[in-house]
Amino acid sequence: xFSQFIDTVMGILNDSGISAFLAEGGWKNLIMIGVSxxxxxLAIAKKFEPLLLLPIAFGMLLTNLxxxxxxxxxxxxxxxxDGSLNSEYWQMIDGKPELIVGNVLHGGLLDILYLxxxxxxxxxxxxxxxxxxxxxxxxxxxxxSFLLGAAAQLGIFVAFIGALALGMSPQEAGAIGxxxxxxxxxxxxxxTKLAPHLLxxxxxxxxxxxxxxxxxxxxxxxxxxTKKERMVRMETLRTVSKTEKIIFPIVVTIVVSVLxxxxxxxxxxxxxxxxxxESGVVERITKTAQNELMNIITIFLGVTVxxxxxxxxxxxxxxxxxxxxxxxxxxxxTAGGVLFGKLMYLLTGGKVNPxxxxxxxxxxxxxxxxxxxxGQEEDPGNFLLMHAMGPNVAGVIGSAVAAGVLINMLG
Amino acid sequence: MEENLFNLGAxxxxxxxxxxxxxxxxLVLIISCFSLFSKVKKIENGGEKATAPNVAPVAPxxxxxxxxxxxxxxxxxxxxxxxxxxxxxxxxxVIKSVKAARGTRxxxxxxxxxxxxxxx
Lengths: 411, 120
Hints:
Largest interface: A-B, 51 and 33 residues
Low-confidence stretches of chain A: none
Low-confidence stretches of chain B: 50-67
Number of strands of chain B: 0
Radius of gyration of chain B: 29 Å
Strand content of chain B: under 5%
Number of helices of chain B: 3
Number of strands of chain A: 2
Mean pLDDT of chain B: 72
Shape of chain B: elongated
Helix content of chain A: 55-70%
Structural class of chain A: mainly alpha
Strand content of chain A: under 5%
Number of domains of chain A: 1
Oligomer: heterodimer
């Protein structure tokens, strides 16, 4: 009787996650659970990008619980280390591995939700919501802001070279470099196209750095500018008419999509959202896109991206390289924007405050708020926020264009 | 092999930076035309206004009346606030003049600006 009880208990223990933790490599899952708990703490107690960090961290927790079966990383690897095709879930079509979608539907809940990431559905839908929330007025009012948005993409390409030098493949280097764009959905979209196996660490690095924007950007902004430059008060922006705001998304979509079709998905959805907002004739769906739809996609995106960070793919040297190069990309993007801002300061005879250049990295509106904060530290009566919003939203377009370039050249 | 990688890195970097800048410069040029259109529109509207008095000579007096009403309202609000402040003290305050402070922002505009630009 007693031995039967012991056998039953032992059987349950063997089937449970406890035995998996004790098995070879099981300790890695325990570390990942610890990391996920730390990220949950940062999201709740420190409020670091909680809307995304919380679902990402919980997805990380769920995927590292042995035996839970919510997510199966083996479904999503097209080729094994020896180069052979993972033929149970992938097939070759026109020389490229394509996912057999029907076969992964037998997986866990997160496998099914992950299809939205794998098929590149979630990031453009997030862009739709962002478009509904973005006012491009400051950018239309001061179109030169576009140049600051372009200069701040410099970090992407320098980090690309850095990642190549660290031994990453060109596709992996491209996916890592895009972290410098400081745009989570763009980083995820590019990673799924170029290096899907690095999606987890790239997404975590991108969102972590976005949460740390004030700490990363402030010292760089102060180091590269003089007190006199930081105190520059900029002229009031002109009022932008409704017609201009309606024409803007249509023109940008046509120009960018015709010249760089690979950027059409992200830019097109961003501009569709913005046209819905500015036209004022589809208020109901605008509200849905920027609230309910965006919130639903944020949950799906966050939890499934977190689910890709299983111990085997996360705890390795690649992650350390990604974290390192991501920081380089971010810092250089900020520096590129500020230095171009200084150039504009010189060329305009001191009319442009170089601090708005750092907002060219696209994290909206955090980067613009940092410009405002640093400016007000020198002159409390200086209001740079609206001036910084121009480069900030230009950075969203700039990083989408940079992503299109990388996908086109390396994909 | 390393040389190929270096060439690829240099190629992607230079092409990428060039395309991003060219694309955004092109957008700068196109968007700059927007302001030209709005200037043309303003000039057209200005032209219409210049001819307006001939058609309706009463129209120019309207803004003056509106401004005066606004000022009266503001003075009434200030008087009410001052009266409320001294209520129950036995003091009867008299407002002799209300002047706009020069060289500062409108208080409501300043309040709105601070509210909307408060960092974190």
